[in-house]
């Protein structure tokens, strides 16, 4: 039963370029980018028990660094990507030291505060970031000389990166370290008594999540060829968090499904309903009421129930 | 291993802890020899668990010192103390509810191994962890439940998992916080023989209210009241003491 879900999910990602038009292929690319974003946030929220409301910081900063380096300082895409990811990861290491002084609500507020500072800077430091106008006229990289300018070629590129990201994060959470992380989420005090260093485990995870969020930020700026301060806003962070919770935090498929749901509602429903946020709210409410643990765990339970196996 | 500089397994020197105006540990000093079985008794609110929490590092004392096998550990984090051979169980059961018994004990083993930092190999790669975890579960008589999640087993069995997690670490000093609390008579005797079978390399300090069982296990007894050591010494001497009768055993 579980494999059917995996195959369906895989097929839905392999098929779009075959018969769908550019609009849908582009939509699928955006879903992939949002999926990496949500997966990295899920490392914190689902596996680490650290609810962050400022995760868009890493997406936005990675995107801005790459945009500035390539458009203003004439860097090549390869070097710009490396600097951008390294910078974002370093920023996560620093923010982590401050935010992890607290847990729970305190942690959430510190991450929110950091992201608001960055969002404010992006707006106000207009000599660097071009403020509300954003940075336009960016280009996509050409890995191994292959142009990514068409919708389909970019989609394949994004798909490869997403698969690698999903694989790496799967390995991360199934490792011994992943067990330590889940233990610290559930019983931090007991874990400390057993010899685990809860702070260090959380910090390393925070940095790793920042790294992958930076990767999604790079894809984001490549895709849009444009970057605006809203990518750093609380709305951007909250949408990702919504996706993680709706899809099922602490599962690997959940954030992918949740991110897809949020993006589809945003792009598809907004064509018909002006107040798409209201619709998103209703859908979210429905999920929380019917499947409190999220879509993926909910469907799993449903499937087990249909097979008559005990839960 | 650290050499036995002072010859004591645990030394608590002039320990003080207060929550605001409420003094819960008042100039407590204790010495415990390697291999000793010490029972700590006292009425509710005497500061027994608070003392344990300071020894294990969950709480910091306001003043005083704690030495573990001669090493000053007063400022050490709880996880550092674990690596110095200290293990504990909790009065309120603190297990990983969604995980299997085997995984619970495995975490106990993993905590002291370098492989806890390993980020690319799955936990199942370390087959010896699972084997060892199952051996420990067998020792506490729970091997048949190894694959069950903690949430599905009975209360008495959870108490034994608490013990198994600590024993898996082969600690040099083991703190047992009411290991018999809430157990039936049968379970009580099971856990009693389990504690009696702990090898002498492990020093055991136990808080327990069930005097019938606990006194059989103990060699020495410390009586606490209002955060002070009232009587301290060999079991029979402490039990015979006038003050023990007055403060604890009562009528």
What this model shows, in words?
The complex is a heterodimer of chains A (311) and B (251). The model of chain A has no long low-confidence stretch (mean pLDDT 90). Chain A has 311 residues and is an all-alpha fold. Chain A has helices at residues 2-14, 16-19, 22-47, 56-71, 77-99, 104-124, 126-129, 151-174, 176-186, 188-194, 198-224, 234-247, 253-267, 276-290, 295-307. In chain B, a hairpin with a 2-residue loop joins strand 4 and strand 5. With 251 residues, chain B is an alpha/beta fold. In chain B, helix 3 packs across helix 4, helix 3 packs parallel to helix 5 and helix 4 (127-139) packs across helix 5 (155-168). Chain B folds into two domains: 1-85 and 171-188 and 199-251, 3-Layer(aba) Sandwich (Rossmann fold); 94-170, no CATH class.
Write the layout of secondary structure elements.
The complex is a heterodimer of chains A (311) and B (251).
Chain A: H1 2-14, H2 16-19, H3 22-47, H4 56-71, H5 77-99, H6 104-124, H7 126-129, H8 151-174, H9 176-186, H10 188-194, H11 198-224, H12 234-247, H13 253-267, H14 276-290, H15 295-307
Chain B: E1 10-19, E2 22-32, E3 37-41, H1 48-56, E4 63-68, E5 71-72, H2 78-83, E6 86-88, H3 101-110, H4 127-139, H5 155-168, E7 173-177, H6 185-196, E8 203-207, H7 211-217, E9 220-225, E10 228-234, H8 235-240, H9 242-249
Parallel strand pairs in B: 3-8, 3-9, 6-7, 7-8
Antiparallel strand pairs in B: 1-2, 1-4, 4-5, 9-10
């Amino acid at each position: 039963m579980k494999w059917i879900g995996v195959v369906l999910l895989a097929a839905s990602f392999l098929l779009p370029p075959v018969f769908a038009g550019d609009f849908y292929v582009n939509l699928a690319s955006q879903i992939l980018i949002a999926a990496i974003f949500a997966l990295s946030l899920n490392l914190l929220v689902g596996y680490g028990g650290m609810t962050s409301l400022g995760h868009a910081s890493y997406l936005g900063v990675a995107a801005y660094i790459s945009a500035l380096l390539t458009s203003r300082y004439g860097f090549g895409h390869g070097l710009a990507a490396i600097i951008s990811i390294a910078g974002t990861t370093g920023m996560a290491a620093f923010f982590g030291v401050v935010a992890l002084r607290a847990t729970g609500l305190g942690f959430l507020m510190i991450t929110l505060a950091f992201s608001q500072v960055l969002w404010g800077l992006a707006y106000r430091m207009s000599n660097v970031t071009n403020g509300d106008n954003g940075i336009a006229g960016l280009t996509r990289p050409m890995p191994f000389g292959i142009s990514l300018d068409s919708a389909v070629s970019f989609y394949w590129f994004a798909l490869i990166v997403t698969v690698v990201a999903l694989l790496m994060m799967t390995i991360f959470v199934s490792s011994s370290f992943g067990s330590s992380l889940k233990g610290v989420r559930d019983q931090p005090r007991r874990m400390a008594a057993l010899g685990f260093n809860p702070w260090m485990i959380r910090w390393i995870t925070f940095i790793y999540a920042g790294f992958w969020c930076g990767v999604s930020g790079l894809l984001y700026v490549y895709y849009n060829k444009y970057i605006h301060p809203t990518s750093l806003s609380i709305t951007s962070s909250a949408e990702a968090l919504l996706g993680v919770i709706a899809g099922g935090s602490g599962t690997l498929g959940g954030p992918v499904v949740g991110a897809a749901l949020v993006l589809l509602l945003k792009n598809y429903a907004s064509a018909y309903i002006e107040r798409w946020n209201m619709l998103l709210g209703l859908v979210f409410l429905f999920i929380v009421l019917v499947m409190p643990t999220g879509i993926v765990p909910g469907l799993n339970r449903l499937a087990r129930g249909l097979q008559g196996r005990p839960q | 291993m650290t050499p036995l500089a002072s010859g004591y397994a645990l030394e608590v020197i002039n320990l003080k802890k207060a929550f605001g105006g409420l003094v819960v540990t008042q100039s407590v000093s204790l010495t415990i020899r390697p291999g000793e079985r010490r029972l700590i008794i006292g009425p509710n609110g005497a500061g027994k668990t608070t003392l344990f929490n300071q020894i294990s590092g969950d709480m910091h004392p306001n003043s005083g010192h704690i030495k573990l096998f001669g090493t000053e550990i007063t400022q050490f984090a709880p996880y550092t103390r674990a690596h110095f051979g200290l293990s504990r169980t909790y009065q309120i059961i603190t297990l990983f509810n969604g995980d299997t018994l085997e995984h619970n004990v495995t975490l106990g083993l993993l905590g002291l191994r370098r492989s806890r930092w390993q980020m690319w190999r799955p936990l199942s790669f370390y087959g010896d962890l699972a084997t060892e975890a199952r051996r420990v579960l067998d020792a506490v008589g729970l091997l048949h439940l190894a694959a069950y999640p903690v949430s599905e087993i009975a209360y008495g069995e959870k108490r034994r998992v608490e013990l198994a997690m600590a024993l898996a670490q082969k600690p040099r000093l083991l703190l047992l916080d009411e290991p018999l609390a809430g157990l039936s008579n049968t379970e009580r005797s099971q856990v009693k023989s389990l504690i009696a079978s702990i090898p002498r390399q492990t020093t055991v300090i136990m808080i327990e209210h069930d005097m019938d069982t606990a006194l059989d296990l103990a060699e020495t007894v410390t009586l606490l009241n209002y955060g002070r050591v009232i009587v301290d010494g060999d079991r029979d001497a402490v039990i015979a003491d006038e003050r023990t009768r007055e403060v604890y055993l009562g009528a």
